[in-house]
């Protein structure tokens, strides 16, 4: 997902009886559906895991602007350009809400940027693929934002208050993202044969990376079990992937496009689709930095950060000067 | 590396006649920029008619551990609620 394979420091999820009183009280509050707020006591591992998860999520929103930003200056109409600009601006906002949520756990914004720019922190694998045609912008909104929604809707109920509240704001904006993407796909799919071929090509390239967004099966993962016990993860990766496939296949059918999976078949018995396995070797390579655009994405981020330094410093200097002036006139008035 | 901009808490009045409500926080070099940034981050869809920003460092908060002593006493004072009193039907609306 936007935060893939988040590790905890847990070796084994412990039962209530095995916990010290403080931790037990904490777990009981979570079990009762109460929210944990900043400054309240929490296990160190809960705090560290959340920082990893939220900052990874924030980095994904920020880096996620880059593939789409590639098409702002080349959108086919002024209206599409305005819509795409608004969408990409939303993603910047999502990053900011999430960075703020992470900061309440005791990490600074600059530390998080540093982790992103040094390559230490991860962001979603999906943003390391290139946007080759305008149809890719449609496919991203439809599939990538669609997959993000699957994951973010349940996170609105997560146990950490600031994260849950950021998710509420984000979810309100996401459905615009998905619909504008589907709208682009609809126009292309119902257009000329060339346009329809563009839409099909985009679906062919984005389908598997979108399924990989949910991460490999984690039914046997202790990290996933611990995150679920803490209610900072609500569904298994396979569950969400299944839901995504079942939701998306009829949409592709409506568009008259073919999902590029020969194994895809409706399974009456389970009431869902059977589908093929994504190429997990590709996934791990992308996560390890070897996707088609990893280097380009990080370079763009670093360049934006470094090129903006003079401007950030200028604003700081101006603020300091103004503050000093106010101070001086206050003293003079006394 | 240059120093990080301070953190500001953002409060928005959603509609005329309502209170300002805390919506989140952001970094900005000064109050003017904090308001401009808050406009972009928190009111992209007509969410507000007025913005307050306060430096996070200037907010004084009650400690989570004081929750009991501060708020529990009110639990025992049910008579503060109008539903504590029975109003006979004959009396009509009160
Ligand atoms: Fe987003
Ligand atoms: Fe989005």
From TrEMBL, chain B:
Task: Read off the Pfam families from this record.
Answer: PaaB (PF06243)
Per its record, how is this protein called by name? 1,2-phenylacetyl-CoA epoxidase subunit PaaB
Q: Which organism is it from?
A: Bosea vestrisii
Q: Which Gene3D superfamilies match?
A: Phenylacetic acid degradation B
Q: What InterPro entries is this protein classified in?
A: PaaB, PaaB_sf
């Amino acid at each position: 997902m936007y935060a893939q394979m988040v590790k905890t420091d847990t070796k084994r999820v412990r039962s209530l009886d095995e916990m010290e009183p403080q931790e037990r009280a904490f777990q009981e509050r979570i079990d009762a559906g109460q929210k944990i707020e900043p400054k309240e006591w929490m296990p160190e591992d809960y705090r560290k895991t959340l920082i990893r998860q939220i900052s990874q999520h924030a980095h994904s929103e920020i880096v996620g602007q880059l593939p789409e930003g590639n098409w702002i200056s080349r959108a086919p109409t002024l209206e599409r350009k305005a819509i795409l600009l608004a969408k990409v601006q939303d993603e910047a906002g999502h990053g900011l809400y999430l960075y703020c949520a992470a900061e309440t756990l005791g990490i600074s914004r600059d530390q998080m940027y540093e982790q992103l720019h040094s390559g230490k922190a991860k962001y979603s694998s999906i943003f390391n693929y290139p946007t080759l045609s305008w149809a890719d912008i449609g496919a991203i909104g439809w599939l990538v934002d669609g997959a993000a929604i699957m994951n973010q809707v349940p996170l609105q109920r997560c146990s950490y208050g600031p994260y849950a509240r950021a998710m509420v704001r984000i979810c309100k904006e996401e459905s615009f993202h998905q619909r504008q993407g589907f709208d682009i796909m609809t126009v292309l799919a119902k257009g000329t044969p060339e346009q329809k071929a563009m839409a099909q090509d985009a679906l062919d390239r984005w389908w598997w990376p979108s399924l990989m967004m949910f991460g490999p099966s984690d039914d046997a993962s202790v990290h996933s079990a611990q995150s679920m016990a803490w209610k900072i993860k609500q569904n298994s990766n396979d569950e969400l992937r299944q839901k995504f496939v079942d939701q998306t296949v009829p949409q592709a059918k409506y568009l008259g496009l073919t999902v590029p999976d020969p194994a895809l078949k409706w399974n009456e018995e389970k009431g869902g689709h059977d589908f093929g396995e994504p190429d997990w070797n590709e996934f791990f390579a992308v996560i390890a930095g070897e996707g088609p655009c990893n280097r380009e994405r990080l370079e763009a981020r670093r360049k934006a950060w470094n090129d903006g330094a003079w401007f950030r410093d200028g604003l700081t200097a101006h603020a300091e000067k103004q503050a000093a002036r106010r101070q001086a006139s206050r003293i003079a008035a006394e | 590396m240059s120093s990080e901009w301070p953190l500001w808490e953002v409060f928005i009045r959603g509609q005329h006649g309502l209170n300002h409500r805390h919506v989140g926080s952001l970094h900005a070099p000064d109050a003017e920029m904090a308001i401009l940034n808050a406009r972009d981050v928190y009111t992209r869809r007509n969410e507000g008619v007025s913005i307050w920003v306060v430096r996070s460092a200037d907010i004084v908060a009650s400690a989570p551990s004081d929750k009991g002593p501060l708020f529990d006493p009110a639990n025992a004072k049910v008579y503060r609620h109008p539903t504590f009193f029975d109003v006979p039907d004959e009396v009509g609306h009160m």
